[in-house]
Specification:
The chain is α+β, with helices and mostly antiparallel strands. The chain has ten helices and 15 strands. α5 crosses α9 and α5 crosses α10. The protein is elongated and about 85 Å long.
Amino acid sequence: MDRLTALGMFVAAAEQGNFSRAAEQLGTTPSSLTKAIAQLEEGLGAKLFERTTRRMSLTEAGHIYLEGARQALMQLQLAGEGVEQLQHELRGSLRITAPPSFAPAFLNAVCCRFLREHPHVHLEVDLSDTYVDLVDGGYDLALRDGPTDLPGVIAQPLVENRITLCASPAYLASRGGEVTLDNYLQHDWLILRHPLLNRHFWWVTKDDQRIRLNQPAPRVSSDNYDFLLACLLDGQGLQFIPQWSAAPYLARGELVEVMPECWREPSGFGPQIYVLYLTHRRNTRKVKVFIEYLKTYWQEHGASA
């Protein structure tokens, strides 16, 4: 029996905790599986399992070998996928997680273009502000702002997380006059409440000068960004929002930049949006192609990291 098949049998036996169940899962016989394990143990000069009439468990050597065997089988699978994808059209599934606010800003357009040009790929896109581990969630890609220093994860900068002040034309027309650092407290404000954001003041930059602004009492506050964006578009007040989110509404004239010479610091969300993926997925063609679509979108829309 070849070593690769034996490795697969060993991993199945370890995960099932039973030779008979593992053999049934693999479509082979318990005797064939027992023989494969015995060959591995003979080659290693060490026992992989402790077996009694009542139970079976991995030895210390078995635990060490299991981790290596899983990695070897995974790398071989990824290599096979890479060769297959190189020779054929992209196929299979791609699982992505991102905050809901990314969807209308740019992710909808990127995903639809990707689907049109790669009809044999199935996308699964989970939109949630809740942190999801890439491994536990089984995701190929994650899009995030904020801290990205995670073990075993590659973080590529995608677009600058620059914060600008916006209002609808209707709101500005109803209030008359300009918004300035002298009168901003007199306006209606829409304010996002988030654990990473200070509730008492903002830092803004104007003409290379860093200025601390007291936060006004909000007309509307919420922990939901999409709700506040709807209020902003409806003319309910002023709001600091990321430029990547404002861009399509600014282009259509639905929003206007206010005090464009002032930029608010992104605070705990960090200066960039990142695309994250596990190190062992770096050469997966579907992942690489989708990342290129993301980068192309921002190049075409005049923004990049």
